[in-house]
Structures are given as C-alpha cells and as structure tokens.
Amino acid sequence: MSIWETCPAVERNPGRVSGAWVFTGTRIPLSALYENLAAGATVDDFVAWFPGVERKQVRAVLEHEARELRNALAR
Asked: Structure pTM?
C-alpha cells in the first residue's frame, strides 16, 4: 500500500467521498485513474474526462506509485 500522505497531488478527508484518496481540490478518487488506465485510457483521456484533474497531478501520482514500488522491491 502506498503512503499517500507524502504525495501533494492527493488528499483525503473522512467527510468527503467516504474518506477515499482523491486528487487535491477535487472529488475524483485515485481509483478512477487506475480503473481507466486498466481499461485502456491514456493520461490525456483521463484528464479530458475528469475536469479538475491536472496532467501534473496524474504524473505526480504515477511517479509516487513507481517510487513506492521501487522502494518495496529494494527491501
């Protein structure tokens, strides 16, 4: 599991979207990104389909996840 607290592109509030991690300043959960990418969408598609999410936020999330995976494998 990623430590999202260190990623400024996301936030969590127990009173919003059932406490799910969302893109900062939106109500769009991170799960929407992963579900759309798994279904074949591109980052550009996702940003177009989910107004309020910026490309730089998606990039930050993916880079954060990649770092977390590398760190986990190095342990």
From this structure: 0.89
